[in-house]
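Two proteins were folded this term; both appear here.
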Amino acid sequence: MSEALIRVFQRFPSLRPYALIFLALAILTVFFFFPLLIMLVYSFAQKGTYGLIKPIDDLGQYLTSFEWLSNYVRSFEPIYLEIYARSLWMAVITTLLCLVIGYPIAYYISLKVKPSWKNTLLTLVVVPFWTSFLIRTYAWIVILRSEGLINHGLIALGWIDAPIETLLYSEFAVMLGLVYGELPFMILPLYASIEKLDTALLEAASDLGANAFWTFVKVTIPATLPGILAGVILVFIPTIGAFITPDLLGGAKSILVGNLVQNQFMIARDKPFGSAICFGLAAFVLVLLFFYARYSTRKEKAIFV
């Protein structure tokens, strides 16, 4: 069969791109869209016994009774709204911290260092990706726990008498782990945007009397705004759905929406409710991407008009 396909492609080379597109669409359909479709169907179903789906005896009555919306209605109960608010707050603060930390790093690599050093520094930025994210998260447990490096160091310096118990299993630990994990995703798009910055604009602003602060505010930030927005999107979306970092570094009070979904599938065995929460979160993220796409389109039109 494979030899026959090879002969077909050799005879009709114009078919090769279509074959690759078909293969990509087939993989996306099987491993992405089909599981999503299953979860969408689950979100309108009801939990049965032993974690199964409750069968529907009368589809007409089920639809007219609006029982199929019960999972989505339940997802707006106050106890879950508190978790959504905490997730949103953690995602916003994490994104802001990554932006505040990542922008100077990207600016320094793009404009201040010699070209020969740029690749080396960029490699250092992506070095954490060479290790499993799970292992890096466990490493923070070693650092933050009562017998960890920070407590041992503070005690050795004589700054504290007893270990600080609140370093690990707290919102502080979760925030630290999230910022550490997502920071490269902020630095890389910022670097790409700042690298394209026309330094003549900075010199013009300086010649016109603007100091370094106002040059940064009035010229650098607007010129690199696409990179800032791309970094914000890349950090915010995975952060709001994160569950490994809150699960390992946070305590019971640090449950985020990702942990809520995981608990519904793995502990409560309520797949319909977990699926409904997933699609609610996906809808929220899609709205953000929609506004980002609209802004990017307007920005491109403004450039080319």
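Next, the second protein.
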Amino acid sequence: MGTFIQLVVDGLAMGSIYAALALAIVIVNQSTGMINFAQGGMAVLSAYLAYAFLGMGMPLILAILIAVAISFALGAAIERLLMRRFEGGDPDTAVVVTVGLLTLITGICGWIWSYNNLQFPSLFPGDSFTLLGAAISWRSLGTFVVIAAIMVLLQVLFQKTKVGLALRAVADNPRSSSFSGLPVGRLLMVGWGLAAALGAVAGALVAPRLSLTPGMLDGALVYALAAVILGGATSPIGVVVAAWLIGVLENLAAVYVPFIGHDLKIAVPFILLFIVLLVRPQGLFGRKTVVRV
């Protein structure tokens, strides 16, 4: 029983990493209707900025907050100066641009800070405590709580606030939103800025666990995209629950399903993804799109 609980706890901790990135992807999707493949690279760049500020002697929390603020401005600038040029065109072109942006940011990070593993301090203590026979680290618990709080705040933002509703309206139909008087351009910049700021938080939470490198979030991005599709790209709660589910199931399958083991556990979330999409194409918590004819 202790092994089972430990696997669940470790799975939730790893799932929180996927969830942090998935939430940033959801913000861009909710405000623009597209998937930003550069989100992982933007989060890594934010972590490197915080690392640079730490090197200047700033306290950790201040370094992270400044990195979050810079990331918000950077995300808004990317939308205004780059992505806006592709709005209204082929959606596939915009997606390819985000892939190119990911490659560019990764290269810039490697050029400035090298590809060596760097140690990034954690906001939470590194020791752990025992609960029901499982060792739970304060670092994992802190990440879990922060992600849960962000999930609730985003759900409230998109469901209960004027800004959130306006972001959703722009994503659903920018032309009609413009005719209704909504400042579409500014809302798109806010959406990208919020996603970049959340990515900065994700980078600061993940870097102490994985070591800071330009490709730190490449693997996590694949799981985060799986969580977005599985949970439903319109639901912050859905993607977090899906990310936790992926983290727990791959851990349990690696230990309790002999032919999977640790080598094939990466296939577990995608098998789950295929099964869910066959039954519910909009994801577990996504809303079904209704088209009037």
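The chain has a mean pLDDT of 80. The chain has eleven helices and two strands. These notes refer to the second protein only.
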